Amino acid sequence: MRRFLSLILPLSLGLVLVATSCDPDGPDGGSNDAGSETPADAGGDAGTDTDAGTDAGTDAGTDAGTDAGTDPDPEEPGDPCALTDPQPSTCAYGSYCGAISSTCQRVRPPACANFNKFPVSWDPATSTGPVTYAAEQVSLVPDGTDCPSALPMRFQVRVRAYSPSGALPTTASELSKVFSYVNPNGSYLSEASQFSDIVTSGDLKNTEFVVSNCIANQPSVDLGFYFEEGNGLCFTVTK
């Protein structure tokens, strides 16, 4: 009996040890899971995610290239031009030769409130009317003689324009039929008495003249100028 017990006990202990060392849920198995899976997942995710790089490179390069290469204008603002030529020199219709840089500059669309109630339909791609491209303040002074008390200040502004077809007005009477001063409230004035110092040149394709009228006594006032079938131009006079 003792001999049988001595044989059974070693066999039992051996089976228990073998079963314990093969247990997949033991501490060693858990350590293997963590060590083999986590580094592979982290490295794979970080190394194979290409969305950020692709998006940044494609969007920036495509947008910049498309915007820069598809400008429909015949010439880009900044092209050289000659101030000795009649306007617009070598610039496209809707642009003018800038006096400071001697380069082509686009005429800006009117952004002042004067044209909110005096809408202007003008497109340099399809229009052919006169282009009012510049204005210069001559004076802004009190006028108690000809201006009403509600509008005690008189401005004088020199306006410049060109027309590809020529036939620009040479007298105040003619000018009053095609040119308007637009008030801040959207009303407009075309009286001949507000025009003076009219100089027309270049086969009647270039003109400059002085516009004078009464305005409110404020530090600055937005003025609007408009040639019939042409663009609107905003200009601010200041004290």
List the helices and strands and how they pair.
Layout (H helix, E strand, L loop, with lengths): L1 H20 L5 H22 L2 H19 L25 E3 L6 E3 L24 E12 L10 E10 L9 H4 L3 E4 L5 E2 L5 E7 L4 E10 L4 E8 L4 E7 L1
Keywords: Signal
Organism: Archangium violaceum Cb vi76
Protein name: Lipoprotein
What does this structure look like?
The protein contains four helices and ten strands, in the order αααββββαββββββ. Helices cover 27% and strands 28% of the residues. Among the domains are: 33 residues, no CATH class; 131 residues, Immunoglobulin-like, CATH 2.60.40. The N and C termini lie far apart (127 Å). It has 239 residues and is α+β, with helices and mostly antiparallel strands.
Question: Notable features of this structure?
Answer:
single chain; 239 residues; alpha+beta; Immunoglobulin-like; four-stranded antiparallel sheet; 27% helix; 28% strand; disordered N terminus
Helix content: 25-40%
- Number of helical runs? 4
CATH class of the domain at 108-238, named Mainly Beta
Question: At the third CATH level, what is the topology name of the domain at 108-238?
Answer: Immunoglobulin-like
Contiguous uncertain segments of 5+ residues: 1-75
**Count of DSSP strands:** 10
Signal peptide: 1-21
Biased composition (Low complexity): 38-69
Keywords: Signal
Protein name: Lipoprotein
Explain briefly what this protein structure is.
The protein is an alpha+beta fold. It is built from four helices and ten strands, in the order H-H-H-E-E-E-E-H-E-E-E-E-E-E.
